[in-house]
Design brief:
Number of strands: 0
Largest sheet: none
Number of helices: 5
Mean pLDDT: 91
Radius of gyration: 17 Å
Order of helices and strands: HHHHH
Distance between the termini: 24 Å
Helix content: 55-70%
Structural class: mainly alpha
């Protein structure tokens, strides 16, 4: 595990986020139709097509890929620059994820927290939480990086 991360970011990025992504991977595999129809909480799709099925399964595969990348990067390096660059890339992707979700849901559904289903909580709530946590870590608000054993801090 990336021992250089302070405790809160380490918990969020090395445990919570990969687990959530594994859930995002499994959900469309276990029930593709429900996963696809729940993407927009206030709309019930009238048709379940092969296009819907392949897009849902490909999205699930992307979540699996994100989990593997997170585990691969954060559990294999003690280089702060690698971890920080990975988290910057994730923060940029978070903005894109939130923007796409906003565009499809529309303002009313995007801010209707009471009306969110579990997928909206993941797509908006959890993604926003991850984004804020990434920015707080990158800004140094969640503690300083630790120096990994066997490495020297360069000035």
């Amino acid at each position: 595990m990336s021992a250089l991360l302070p405790p809160v970011p380490r918990l969020v990025f090395t445990i919570l986020e990969p687990l959530a992504c594994i859930g995002g991977y499994l959900a469309p595999i276990l029930d593709t139709a429900s996963f696809a129809s729940a993407q927009v909480p206030s709309i019930t799709p009238t048709q379940y097509t092969s296009t819907t099925q392949i897009l849902a399964l490909q999205l699930g595969n992307c979540y699996g890929l994100i989990a593997l990348i997170a585990i691969g990067v954060l559990y294999s390096t003690n280089e702060a620059k690698v971890v920080r660059n990975y988290l910057v890339a994730c923060a940029i992707a978070d903005i894109g994820h939130l923007w796409v979700t906003y565009e499809v849901l529309g303002y009313a559904n995007f801010v209707d927290v009471k009306g969110w289903n579990s997928l909206a909580w993941g797509n908006v709530g959890f993604t926003f939480f991850l984004f804020v946590t990434r920015i707080a870590y990158l800004a140094g608000l969640l503690g300083k990086d630790r120096i990994a054993a066997g490495t020297k801090k360069r000035v």
